[in-house]
Amino acid sequence: MNAITTGRVLVIADGQASLNDAVRILTDKGYKVLRAREGDQAVGLSRQQRFDLLLAEATEDGVQAAHTLRRADPNMAVVLVGDHEAISTALRSLNSGIQSYLTQPFTKDELEWTVADVLKRCEVCRDSRRLKALLPLFEMTKSLMSEVDLEKLFNAIVETVWAETEADSVALLLSDADKEVVVRLGLGLPQNRGRGANIASSVAGTEPNLTEASSVVCFPLVVRGREVGVLHADRNDGATPFAKSDLDLFSLLCSPAAIALEKLHIVEDIKSQRERVQQAEQMLARTVQLQEEERKHISLDIHDSVLQWMAAALYRLQACEDAVLNHSTEADHELLEIKRLIVQSIKELRRLLSSLRTPPLDKEYLLDSLRQTIEFLRREQHTRVGFEINGEPFELPPPLLNTAVRVAQEALTNVRKHAAATKVEVRLCFKPDQVVLEICDNGKGFDPEQAKAKGQLGLIGMRERAEALAGELAIESAVGLGTRIVLVLPASATSADLFSTKTM
């Protein structure tokens, strides 16, 4: 056997010549040796540095020191020196761990061989324990790094710690938005939940509460200097405390757990960003579609009004020309009709151009647009129009403002063109969480189902504008009973920020 001469050896030599000689022999052999005169001094030295082997006389003081040192470090080996009776008594007392002995008197070769043999066996045992710890770590790391489901990941972390450390309770605590740790998942926690959370909170820098703790470990899960959570485990009062090997394994398990959590957060962020991008793309496509439908609607407006009036004016002009050539008295009447049609066309074009302008979109734009549209209806149709504002007007996102204006303009245009109403009421209500626009008229009304079946662009456009911003549009009407249109828009729609500030 090749001797191992790199271990740290602690010798309790209280003046016995053989042990004093052992210090010299082992030092000459290349070991790092410290000597203590009694057990208490040996215990004190072990608190300052780690030793691989204790060499002590098989007396009460030596055995007691071995007990104390083995409790503090179960990996420490013990070699006892004494006669057969003393060693037999001591070995019955020291019934755990790797042990060996030297019967006095012993030779230099026997000392060197025994120490080397014990250290070699210690090394083999440490390698075995390390391999045992690394195997579940390897399996857990594979599981964690391949897991993309948050709850499955949490279960894998907690169950691995539960199985490998034999704790009575295990909890995974994650940091929330306020940097407070909250229990996300645990095993064996019903009676320990509060205690575990309090103890783990001390790791996160809050006030600890250790009044009921017996054996507790809390390890922060840290990635790139940022704490993402805490792993907590404890054993109930009276249970065997966690050993150093448990703590080593616990520490090893924390690293892949923290990395996996961080990776999962990144994956979740990417998925969330992808969903937002998809939502933005869908809304952009819907915006383009609405713009195309708006163009069609404007085209129909021009075709049904200005174009028809200008064509009529042309016919009147031809009739006027014929009257002048024939010296008819109808020329004056035709000229007046031509003038009326041209003036009406100019007004309609101004209205259409006004509805297409893109002013600064603020609350004043909404109120001014409503007032202008109402005033136009009053002048052209001699209709009584009431305008009422409830609540304190506040600023709205541009898409909401634009939708409210466009719906109001479309509804009042329908009143002017089709309703033959003598009275219209417009109400605008500002509530904390929504804006409500209501337009009622006493006109001839219509059948909403028939209008929907015919695919009338104006009504369809109003409804789709509202739904695009998570709003609602209700249309209540019946033939001969007038019409009531109610638009409800959320005061702050999350989708609103995805829209352009330009009007559609």
Which features would summarize this protein structure in a list?
about 500 residues; alpha/beta; Rossmann fold; Beta-Lactamase; Heat Shock Protein 90; five-stranded parallel sheet; five-stranded mixed sheet; 13 helices; rod-shaped; disordered C terminus
Describe the structure.
The chain has 504 residues and is an alpha/beta fold. The chain folds into three domains: 8-131, Response regulator (Rossmann fold), CATH 3.40.50.2300; 139-271, GAF domain (Beta-Lactamase), CATH 3.30.450.40; 360-504, Histidine kinase-like ATPase, C-terminal domain (Heat Shock Protein 90, 2-Layer Sandwich). It has 13 helices and 14 strands. It has helices spanning 17-29, 39-48, 60-72, 84-93, 108-146, 150-165, 193-203, 244-325, 331-356, 363-381, 398-419, 448-454, 457-468, and strands spanning 8-12, 32-36, 53-57, 77-82, 99-103, 169-175, 181-187, 215-223, 226-235, 384-390, 423-430, 434-441, 472-477, 483-490. The strands form three sheets. The protein has a five-stranded parallel sheet with strand order 2-1-3-4-5, with helices on both faces. Strands 10-11-12-14-13 form a five-stranded mixed sheet. Helix 8 (244-325) runs antiparallel to helix 13. The protein is rod-shaped. The relative contact order is 0.05.
CATH-defined superfamily of the largest domain: Histidine kinase-like ATPase, C-terminal domain
| Shape estimate | rod-shaped
In terms of per-residue confidence, which ranges show pLDDT below 50 for 5 or more consecutive residues?
191-213, 494-504
Estimated radius of gyration:
45 Å
The helix count comes to 13
Give the spatial strand order of the biggest sheet. 2-1-3-4-5
Question: How far do the termini sit from each other?
Answer: 89 Å
The CATH topology of the largest domain is given as Heat Shock Protein 90
Helix fraction bin: 55-70%
Beta-strand segment tally: 14
Number of domains: 3
